[in-house]
Amino acid sequence: MSFQSIVRDFYNSRLNYDNVATISRATTLVNFFPPKSGDSVLDLATGTGNVAFRAGEIVGPTGKVIGLDISEELLHIANAKKAADIWNNVDFRVSDICLEVFSIGSIDAAYCSFAIMLIDDIDGFLTRVSAGLSEGGFFAFTSASTSSYLNNEIAQAGALSGMTIPPVNERFGDPERIAQRLRESGMDVEEIHELQLGRFIELEDAKAKWDGKFWLHPEQTLEGLPESISRTMKIDFDKIVAAKARDGFVWFEEKVYFVKSVKAG
């Protein structure tokens, strides 16, 4: 099974995707880097449409927003929310954004909220997005630090079983990596905001963050891994997390980068 098929199936199963955190992260991205009235906006990996609807409010009746996503189930939710689209200027389409080709100069603002780390051919994707930007257009996205979401603890558990489990956010895990990736695709960072959204969570909730069986990284999904190894990694992960607990709570890192990029030069 291809990596994008795994991503699609994973998000098709997340029918409870919308919550305070996911909605807030999406709208914060647009609020940091808003489009202009009348802009043509593309929301890449739109999910349930939270970025798209917020952008639609801002671009108004003369603007247009198109949301693309590989998950048919999340788009069903997005389309069900269109009754709240006050300007009737938001549309959705099923698409694998890793393969999408954008018309040159057609995009005034493009967004990608918490999905850029799931794109396998990231250089090709960024090059196509850059080509699609209009004069003065921008591409805004979010990523998280490599240590967020207990990534380090998961990697440690994998290493004990001889497995290499790279952080999901490996390629965009800090401002330096973000800038380098963008430069390689002919883009520059114009603005970046760093927010620490981490919190202390109960030990049992921390243990539940990983089952030892599944990982969403283009180079490592753990697909087909023997049950014995998965079980051992899960046991080790629980022990590693428990060792970090203080008074029954564990720090759950969530350092998020909100990035605005433009064509280089």
Could you walk me through the main structural features you see in this protein, from its secondary elements to its overall organization?
By secondary structure, the protein is of the alpha/beta class. The chain has a single domain, classed as Rossmann fold (3-Layer(aba) Sandwich), CATH 3.40.50.150. It has nine helices and nine strands. The chain has helices at residues 3-12, 20-32, 50-59, 72-80, 122-132, 151-160, 175-184, 203-207, 227-243; strands spanning 40-44, 64-69, 90-94, 107-112, 133-144, 187-196, 199-202, 249-252, 255-263. A seven-stranded mixed beta sheet has the order 3-2-1-4-5-9-6, sandwiched between helices. The longest helix has 17 residues, at 227-243. It starts with a helix and ends with a strand. 38% of the residues are buried.
DSSP strand (E) fraction?
A: 15-25%
Structural class: alpha/beta
Cα-to-Cα separation, first versus last residue: 40 Å
Return the average pLDDT rounded to an integer: 95
Largest sheet: 7 strands, mixed
Fraction of residues in H or I helices: 25-40%
Number of helical segments with 4 or more residues: 9
> How do the SSEs run, as a string of H and E?
HHEHEHEEHEHHEEHHEE
Widest sheet, order of strands? 3-2-1-4-5-9-6
